[in-house]
Amino acid sequence: MIEIFTTGGTIDKVYFDANSEFDIGDSLVGELLAESNIHEGFSVSGLMRKDSLEMTDEDRETVRNAVSQCPAEHVLITHGTDTMAETANALLSVKGKTIVLTGAMQPARMRRSDAAFNIGFAWAAARLLPHGVYIAMNGEVFEAGSVRKNLKAQRFERT
Known about the structure:
It is a single chain. The protein is 26% helix and 31% strand. The protein has 159 residues and is an alpha/beta fold. The protein has one domain: 3-Layer(aba) Sandwich (Rossmann fold), CATH 3.40.50. The strands form 3 sheets. A 6-stranded mixed beta sheet has the order 4-1-5-6-7-8, with helices on both faces. Strands 2-3 form a two-stranded antiparallel ribbon. A two-stranded antiparallel ribbon has the order 9-10. A hairpin with a 4-residue loop joins strand 9 (147-150) and strand 10. Helix 1 (29-35) crosses helix 4 (115-128). It is globular and about 45 Å long. One of its GO terms (molecular function) is asparaginase activity. Substrate binds at residues 52, 81-82. It holds the Pfam family Asparaginase. This is Asparaginase.
């Protein structure tokens, strides 16, 4: 069983107009998994609907508490990319679980989004990796504490 926690971020953004006004909508993670023919073996819980730039230390503590208290050994977290590495670092104290954070550079609702691939990739990572905290984005896995987002290149890289 994989416990999936959603926190918001670009993956769940809904844009309203050309001026880039947006809101964080309902998560599409269940639909994305269904498109990949994954219909069971997971539970989805929405923790918050925030752009990751708005996440606070208290929000990270909420995520950490939810992960540490859930009975699942395998955890997937959807998260905004801008502060994903910070939240991954905040989860390093949780032991005995494989925790994988993922998100998207383009909203799942957009035609050319990396969301479906990233969710499927993170699903596999959560099932196959040893206990620890990881970021799985765009075909690469990074260990928490040694990754950052390169804003200019719009990708994650090892530090």
